Hints:
Layout: H1 2-26, H2 31-48, H3 52-67
Amino acid sequence: MERDSQLELYAAVAARLKEAHTRVRTLQVPEGVRMALSRKLLVITAAAKHDLADAARRLDRLTKDLDEGRFPEGE
């Protein structure tokens, strides 16, 4: 039973990561900001391989920042 819930969480995080990547790619922001957001998404993707729950929390924070228009500084 626990394995099923883990698979469901994995599928949900994967779908949300895909959506977030698409969202970042289409943002009308300077290239440096887009690169910073892409790096954050790559870190979250890597974290999902080791700690799925932590990756989901990080993705929640990033999505909230995107929703509220809070973007990292570009290079």
